[in-house]
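Hi U.,

Before I forget, here's the chain from the pilot set. I'm dumping it here mostly so it's searchable later in email.
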Amino acid sequence: LHGRLKQKAGALQMAISVALVEHRDSSICKTCNGAGEMTGPPRIVCASCDGAGTRPLSGRQRAKRLGRSHSSYQRHWRQLYEAVFMMFYEWESEVERHLKKRLNRGG
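Structure:
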């Protein structure tokens, strides 16, 4: 039991490390230039990045960074990795929301 817990903790740590690097280095979507939407009437969410403004790595690229095969990533890592990756976006959005709120109040 202790060995499995240690193995799961190691997997989580690896997923966090790789997802953090991906989040930090996310490339700007070339379709919308990072805006997340297409300008002009009406505004349309960018189909290339689903409104995120960045292009995430593919499953194959993520598997390679984790040192796993694509099939292993899909079966065992994808769900964990994507949950960790989304946490970073949620935290970033929360920080942005708080900063905007503070700036609008004048400090």
